[in-house]
Amino acid sequence: MQKTLLAFAICATSIANVSAQDLTISITNLTHGSHFTPLLVAAHAADQHLFEAGMSASTNLQAMAEGGDTSGLINDLNGVSADISDNPAAGLMTPGQSVSFDLMTQSANTHISVVAMVLPTNDGFVGLDAMHIPTAVGTYTYYLDAYDAGTEANDEIINGAGAPGAAGIPADPLGEGGTGATGVTSTESNMHVHVHRGVLGDTNATGGSSDLDSRVHRWLNPVARLVIQVK
Amino acid sequence: MKLMTHKTLFATALVLAISACSDDNDDSTTSSQAYRISITNLTHAQPLSPPIAMLHDSTFNWWSIGDTASSALEMMAEGGDGSALLALAAKNPQHHDSDVLLPGSSTEFTLTMTEESHNRLSVSGMLVNTNDAFSGLNSAELESLLPGQNMVYYSNVYDAGTEMNSELAGTIPGPADGGSGFDAARDDVTSVVTLHGGVVSSDDGLATSALGDEHKFDNAALRIEVTAL
Lengths: 231, 229
Known about the structure:
The complex is a heterodimer. Chain A is mostly beta strands.
């Protein structure tokens, strides 16, 4: 996706003659047992993407999805003059937590993307891919799904691993995770970004196939609410 | 007005369907506007506790994502009794269905405004084969709905955050278990209102669950159609 971002940077100003916008954005973690790592919200030109369903994840998306590291994606966005809100919640977002912040957009940046890792997962993230930002004054509500980056097998083993390519889940901030799991799977058959199938979990805190708790860490889509207020 | 793009439509809670204005009505609402509300239970085997509905102003909420549930909400979400939620604003136009709304069934009733400021609608009911799951409509705006128009909402399932989703026998009031309902003790891992993660069931790996695969659900759980008469 980094390639895509750079490739389309040159024609970004040719999209539309839209004014700069003054937005207030609110994002809510709707899940019952999952945290979001630091959010990355950006307004950018129409043809730029942090991720695209059905395409391979960029290495920078992988770093975000597997370990919550948004620095690479931020570098990509800075390279194409995006308007960025980096970590507006100042850290992890707890289940049910909302954050509200302002985003001033330049006229060429007509589309919005949102990403944050869903923790605890192997490479799950809440995502919005390049949605057109409404231009009429009003308040607009959207619901976002969880995606799987397709870069890591969903073994559901909590072992502290958050580096790209390292198997395992960094942590469960809720403190409901277990240890000693043998692993749900060791393969990832869909290596493109896709809608996350959800986590399995079990109720064996010191073994079993998963270190996640099936009663706590599962979710149903949507996982986030996005409200955009156009002023 | 709340809108949603086609990109997120498949996961969504809200679909608008506004029909043309009827010739028989004035094109504006009044302080005595009546609304017909139709609720359909979309789940496979989750009866909805007798649904409740109320018209209220924009300052009132039965629940908010991220907030701690009130005792009244807890009573409805754990035991299916919406009386306490209705009693929070007893003078408002309100409705309490007499019967459980079975899966695949619909119910319909009318609410009539008594004050112009009561231009929001909330609806709720418990998915009774769960610990503390409920669905409904949270302060839907009615002011843009003109006489003769209707709007359709698809409602997600919420978790009250007041009871652990243990699915243990004895903790679920619905027919799958016949266990206890409301218990003032709070023991959930997340103690605020969120969306629900779904039930696991004994058929899906939770050996101690009183539920089976038939009790699983996905969003949306309810279809709620509101028509301005």
